[in-house]
Amino acid sequence: MKLPLPMRSASVRTPASRSGFTLTEIMTATGLISLVVIGVVYSQLFAMRTFNITSTRVAANDSARKVLNRVRDDVRSGKLLYVGNGSSTSFTHIALNSPHQGNALQIHPTTDPNVFIRYYLDTATQTLKRTTNGTGRVEALAPFLTNQIAFIAEDFAGHTLTNDQNNRVIKMVLDFYQWEFPVAQVGAGAFYESYHLQTRITRRTIE
Questions:
Q1: What are phi and psi for residue 98, nearest 5 degrees?
Q2: What pLDDT digit, counting tens, does each position of 160-206 carry?
Q3: Do 156 and 167 form a contact (C-beta atoms < 8 A)?
Q4: Fewest beta carbons within 10 Å, which of 51, 71, 132, 153?
């Protein structure tokens, strides 16, 4: 009688026989992954800071452009323009034979001297403001100013006038030491960059 031969069992590799990572390989892979993560985080932080600074500058330029457009429209449509020194309640015209420059600009839309629009630099609050006759309303247009003289009457060649020349050019100068409502701190020690705004405007119709 023949007995069946026992079946040979297939060889099975135990977990102990599998090859694995060495400690050096694990440490190297961990170090590379850490470097990649740190680089990604740093790039993200740098991009966010750059975006904030750019947004602040764009907002500042937009605010400055709005102020310029406001002054420009009033000057171009004015009949009489006078540079002097003033506040919300008073205006002093510069005398003849003296440089026509000061902190205020008074614009008369008509030939009526009692109807006016006045821009003035309030040195107490360092803010450019606007007011009109009869309303008592004062608008704050541009804060954080450092200059004392904001308006200068010039001729076509850029020379400061000493009289009430009819075809005068109004030069406006605004020096800011800080942006309006900045969303980012710029510069060493979180100082803000200053910037200089200057424009020249004349009436649309010279009579």
A1: -125, 145
A2: 999 988 788 999 998 877 654 454 555 554 545 677 888 999 987 66
A3: yes
A4: 51
